[in-house]
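re: that chain from earlier
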Amino acid sequence: MNDVWKIRLGELDEKLGIEVIEESAECVVARMPVDGNRQSLGLLHGGAMVAIAEAVGSWAAVIHASTMGKVAVGVDINATHHASGREGYVTATATAIRLGRTLTSHEITIEDGQGTRLCTARITNAIVDKR
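^ sequence. v structure.
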C-alpha cells in the first residue's frame, strides 16, 4: 500500500500566508489573510485567489494520486471572481468533482469571513508516474 501524501507548503504558499485546515482527496480547506495579499486599489488580489485555488485543488489531486503511487500535475484552471475581499481571512474549499485514474477535477469556492462567495474556480490535474 502507498503512503498518503501530506500537504507541505511551498514558498509561494508561505508568502501568501496560507494555513491548511483540512486535507483529503475529496476536500481540502485552507485560509489566507487579505493583509499582505492586496492589489494597488486595496482589495484582495485576484491572482492571490487563483493561487490559493490552485494550491487546494492541486493538493487534493496529489493526495489522491499518492494512493496509487503517482503524482498529479495541473493541466487547466479557470476562475470567476464574484466579489472583492477587503479584510480578515478568506477560506478556500476544494471539493472533488471526479477522482479518476488519469484525471481529477475539483471545484474551489473562496469565501470571506461572512460567508460571501468571492471566487469560484475549477482545476483539472493529470495523474502521472513519479519521475
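The mean pLDDT is 97.
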